[in-house]
């Protein structure tokens, strides 16, 4: 594979080492065994099982089982590595050539060739129902240049693309299934080329997938299938693992760590992630159409206290969308919003905002979300902001805020991270991006800085561009980041080979069941 060392390092987070806790490593040394069904407690019903049309970051835990991506990432660093594209090369700054692995088929038998890749990329770029158009904005055209070769012609240089193609934009769906599907979406009938094929989805209850017997990776996957039980209440989900009803639970809240470690049958894995709890803001709608109100919100939040009270200290206070360990982190930008309720009050007065005016934010009804809401309500009250939360399940609340309804002025949720930081910023802070709740314009210099962050393969050039991006985002207070939550996964001891990853979204590539 032809890639430069610097591009490989584009998502490198120095010093971020995943760790395990409780009685030794979760990395099995014994030979993996085939068979058995992996039973997982999942915290949220998916918004869609079609990678192009879904809108929730929590979907990935399901999508990654059924859809392989053009590129993949190393678990510890998020450096891109070969996937369905066995190699790639920038032949010039505006041309990216992908060489597609031969002999791979979709679950329905359709060949995964260059034509299928072009079909998927064109759909993601231009279909009216696609929520990932912003991922591929730099692509001018996709050309089939060989039976297993696709050439992307770019409008502007984009060195983030190898990382981007390890996410939704790189998830390949069977063109046959898409052409046959009603409305051209496979929300309920997903057909990918991943390690597992779709079996069933009982809404809000269970998703079942089975081993893909023709999977291209040798000796993978090991389990015969995976059963995801949808259990939004994480305490109940954790109890299902300690009781042996399920084998694994991910996205555990920090408060559960001490409790679950007391169960002798369970082991816990934890590690740093890009997963950031934050308040998404609709800056096209009052009161957050006023920059001073957005800034006041950021000054009114005591992030250190929030981490202690809401996350049992198992998190890093967030002052931007990248954690301290990230290569593109900017320590100066992190100083913009120290906790200062008096400053917040002053800004509200300057904005003409009447103290006590209700501000409606969306949120989720689970115990941990409600606790976070209560902490924020009290913190913001001290600065003269009267916040109330309207709660709904994750998929429903996300669709209400980000979709056509544009409900609420903000949403307390999380940004689950992206392999390349430029994708994080372009998906939230460009005009037509799905996660820009109001689809509101941003300063032209911000859009220009995001483009600049993708123009060079030199990591230092990219770092400087991200400094500009981050400063513009936070000076304009387009978001209120709260905390980077650690990945926390608990599993029965028969589960072997599970590895945490920096993205904080579980993959089960190497998992097998003992006994």
From TrEMBL:
InterPro entries: Peptide/Ni-bd, SBP_5, SBP_5_dom, TAT_signal. The keyword Signal applies. The keyword Signal applies. Gene3D superfamilies: Dipeptide-binding Protein, Domain 1, Dipeptide-binding Protein, Domain 3, Periplasmic binding protein-like II. It is found in: Periplasm. Its main location: periplasm. SUPFAM superfamilies: Periplasmic binding protein-like II. Belongs to the bacterial solute-binding protein 5 family. Keywords: Signal. Residues 79-431 form the Solute-binding protein family domain. This is Peptide ABC transporter. Residues 1-30 form the signal peptide.
């Amino acid at each position: 594979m032809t890639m430069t060392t610097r591009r490989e390092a584009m998502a490198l987070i120095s010093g971020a080492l995943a760790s395990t806790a409780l009685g030794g490593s979760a990395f099995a040394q014994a030979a993996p065994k085939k068979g058995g069904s992996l039973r997982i407690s999942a915290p949220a019903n998916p918004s869609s099982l079609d990678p192009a049309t879904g809108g929730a970051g929590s979907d990935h835990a399901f999508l990654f089982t059924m859809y392989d991506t053009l590129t993949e990432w190393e678990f510890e660093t998020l450096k891109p590595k070969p996937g369905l594209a066995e190699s790639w090369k920038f032949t010039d700054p505006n041309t990216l050539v992908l060489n597609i692995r031969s002999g791979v088929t979709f679950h329905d038998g359709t060949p995964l060739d260059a034509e299928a890749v072009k079909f998927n990329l064109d759909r993601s770029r231009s279909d009216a129902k696609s929520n990932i158009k912003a991922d591929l904005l730099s692509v001018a055209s996709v050309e089939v240049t060989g039976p297993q070769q696709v050439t992307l012609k770019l409008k502007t240089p984009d060195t983030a693309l190898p990382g981007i193609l390890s996410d939704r934009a790189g998830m390949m769906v069977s063109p046959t299934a898409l052409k046959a599907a009603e409305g051209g979406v496979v929300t309920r009938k997903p057909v990918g080329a991943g390690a597992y094929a779709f079996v069933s989805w009982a809404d809000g209850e269970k998703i079942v997938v089975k081993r893909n017997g023709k999977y291209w990776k040798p000796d993978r996957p090991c389990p015969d299938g995976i059963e995801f039980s949808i259990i939004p209440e994480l305490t109940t989900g954790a109890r299902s693992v300690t009781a042996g009803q399920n084998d694994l639970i991910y996205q555990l809240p920090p408060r559960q760590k001490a409790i679950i470690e007391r169960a002798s049958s369970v082991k816990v894995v934890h590690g740093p992630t890009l997963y950031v709890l934050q308040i998404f803001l609709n800056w096209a709608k009052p009161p957050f159409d006023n920059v001073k109100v957005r800034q006041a919100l950021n000054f009114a939040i005591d992030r250190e206290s929030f981490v202690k009270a809401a996350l049992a200290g198992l998190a890093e206070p967030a002052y931007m969308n990248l954690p301290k360990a990230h290569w593109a982190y900017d320590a100066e930008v992190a100083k913009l919003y120290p906790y200062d309720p008096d400053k917040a009050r002053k800004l509200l007065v300057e904005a003409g905002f009447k103290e006590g005016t209700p501000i409606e934010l969306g949120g989720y009804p689970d115990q941990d979300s409600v606790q976070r809401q209560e902490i924020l309500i009290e913190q913001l009250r001290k600065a003269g902001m009267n916040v109330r939360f309207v709660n709904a399940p994750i998929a429903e609340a996300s669709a209400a805020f980000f979709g056509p309804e544009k409900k609420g002025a903000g949403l307390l949720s999380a940004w689950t991270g992206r392999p390349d930081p430029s994708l994080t910023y372009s998906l939230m802070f460009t005009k037509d991006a799905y996660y820009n709740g109001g689809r509101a314009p941003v300063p032209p210099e911000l859009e220009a800085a995001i483009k600049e962050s993708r123009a060079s393969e030199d990591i230092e050039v990219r770092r400087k561009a991200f400094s500009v991006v981050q400063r513009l985002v936070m000076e304009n207070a387009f978001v209120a980041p709260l905390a980077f939550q650690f990945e926390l996964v608990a599993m029965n001891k028969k589960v072997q080979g599970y590895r945490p990853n920096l993205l904080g979204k579980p993959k089960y590539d190497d998992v097998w069941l003992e006994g």
